[in-house]
Specification:
The chain has about 525 residues and is α+β, with helices and mostly antiparallel strands. It has 12 helices and 20 strands. The strands form 5 sheets. Strands 11-10-9-12-13-14 form a 6-stranded mixed sheet, sandwiched between helices. The chain is globular.
């Protein structure tokens, strides 16, 4: 059912013929009596968009199986790709703003954590990112430790920006007609246009039942021409997303800047239904296109038929990042405030591998990143795709660690018959773990390696940085919204206390907004 945007009154004139057979009452007439009554016109109220309850919600979220604790002797390595997507956070905010708790599988904890920037130092060596870490007692289980790992991407020299070749790939199908879809999408892309330089180029491809070029690649100096083309797009028809993707990449390749920023920006609700339309087909298509040195940004819009799982899979396959635009403020954050971090890649295929010291660690659990976990052998395989790091981006990962002297029982497999695991002398030190990073420069295919170690210095929670405490607050809310079996003693009150005490400067108010989200989630979670 689709609600109209304005109230409408429907008048019904109902005529009822009621046959009253009441011989007992009409004994003198000797016959039945037929009376006709006309009911006055009745006014019926049709709800507005805000008030309508959707009868058929087809939103889709892929199932998330939380990472379990791993035995540090039997599983000493943990390998994953970085994730700079933050679509989950703004989607969770959308649910809470509508006074609903989000579906559990809409909550990807790492994306909630990485929605925020953290105050990590700028890199000072030859590598494009710096590394920070802290270790202290885990706020929701004080018998465990929480390891905080932070990366800070190098900021760009804005006076020496390489030119951008962007292709806007716009879903103009019938499902995009709502105000929070195509109209919001147009406003969002206009914000991006205002941030670009005159020598940057934009092309526009729209797709519905078929795909077509709305605007050939045009210099941003012709801003009025670009905006007029954008405004001409109207919604209607089915959704040939695969055809649109092929055309957008073709145009991006034809206008490729060899040393520049080449990117397709796909704006959609993800409801593809014509041609190449299944998630697996689209992923294969994008995997082929990423070889052409063209990056991908996916922006999700709307509600009711939103296909989150599909868009995350496509983004992961395409050297891309993924955002959910729920309002104009989020559009400003993605396309204006953090535009350079989101649009300019400084390191690609960034992987992290950690080896835990079994003399210090009994077990460990990576918090979030379930869709980014990699096989350990993939760390050294430069053919395996991983996440991209944007200019000035921060990436944060948390591990909950069970100390070696803990009495907690940890799952393990039987002893092996043909092999024996031995702990070597190198483990007899105060190192908790060794962490390795692999990354490639944007135009290169051979990875570079960085190796660091982390030591537990006995830091108290109250002495940790705002980075540590705020990220743990965000993780805590994620665990609560997922009703995680690992949430331990985390409560909304504790999450709020951690967040309020670590808001820092909060120039754009994002952290204050997060505190309000905690309060809303707590109220919605109360058993009345």
């Amino acid at each position: 059912m689709k609600a109209k945007s304005s109230k409408s009154l429907i008048k019904l004139s109902v005529v009822l013929s009621i046959l009253l057979l009441s011989n007992a009452c009409e004994v003198h007439s000797g016959k039945a009596k037929s009376d006709m009554y006309e009911i006055e016109a009745v006014e019926l109220y049709e709800a507005t968009d805000e008030e309508v309850v959707l009868e058929h919600n087809t939103e889709e979220y892929d199932r998330i199986y939380e990472n379990d604790f791993k035995n540090a002797i039997q599983n000493p390595l943990s390998t994953f790709s970085i994730d700079v997507d933050n679509a989950s956070y703004s989607n969770v905010r959308r649910f809470l703003s509508n006074n609903q708790l989000p579906p559990k599988d809409a909550v990807r904890v790492e994306e909630m954590i990485n929605y925020f920037n953290y105050d990590y130092p700028q890199p000072k060596d030859k590598h494009p990112f710096s590394f920070s870490n802290e270790v202290t007692d885990c706020p929701w289980n004080t018998k465990h430790k929480l390891v905080h790992i932070g990366l800070q991407g190098k900021s760009l020299n804005y006076d020496d920006l390489k030119p951008s070749n962007l292709v806007f790939l716009i879903d103009a199908s019938g499902s995009m007609s709502d105000n929070n879809k195509l109209p919001l999408l147009k406003k969002a892309l206009k914000l991006l246009i205002n941030e670009l330089n005159d020598n940057d180029r934009i092309a526009i491809v729209a797709y519905a039942g078929s795909a077509g070029v709305v605007l050939p690649s045009t210099k941003v100096s012709n801003k009025e021409e670009i905006i007029e083309a954008l405004d001409r797009i109207e919604s209607g028809g089915s959704t040939a997303g695969g055809q649109g993707i092929q055309l957008a990449y073709k145009i991006a390749k034809e206008n490729l800047f060899k040393d520049g920023n080449n990117r397709v920006i796909l704006a959609t609700d993800g409801d593809f239904n014509v041609g190449v339309s299944s998630s697996s087909e689209l992923v294969r298509l994008i995997e082929e296109k990423r070889k052409e040195d063209i990056f991908l940004t996916i922006c999700g819009f709307g509600m009711g038929n939103y296909k989150d799982g599909r868009m995350e899979q496509i983004s992961n396959a395409g050297n891309g990042n993924y955002f959910y635009i729920d309002n104009i403020k989020e559009a400003k954050k993605v396309f204006s405030t953090e535009m350079r971090a989101n649009m300019f890649t400084i390191a690609k295929d960034v992987k992290i591998q950690i080896e835990f010291n079994p003399n210090q660690v009994k077990a460990y659990r990576l918090i979030g990143y379930e869709n980014r976990v990699m096989n350990n052998e993939d760390f050294n395989d430069d053919k395996k795709d991983a996440g991209e790091l944007g200019a000035g981006h921060t990436v944060t990962a948390l591990y909950e660690v069970v100390p070696v002297n803990s009495e907690d029982s940890v799952k393990k497999h039987d002893d092996l018959k043909y092999q024996k695991t031995e702990i070597v002398n190198a483990s007899e030190n105060d190192e908790m773990l060794t962490i390795k990073f692999r990354y490639k420069k944007p135009k290169e295919d051979k990875s570079l390696l960085i190796t660091k170690t982390i030591i537990d210095n006995g830091l108290k929670l109250e002495s940790t940085s705002d980075n540590f405490r705020f990220s743990s607050a965000v993780a805590g809310l994620g665990l609560l919204l997922r009703d995680s079996k690992y949430k331990g003693d985390m409560t909304y009150e504790l999450a709020k206390k951690l967040a309020v005490g670590s808001k820092g400067k909060d120039a754009n108010g994002y952290r204050s907004e997060f505190v309000s989200m905690i309060e809303t989630a707590e109220l919605l979670s109360e058993k009345l």
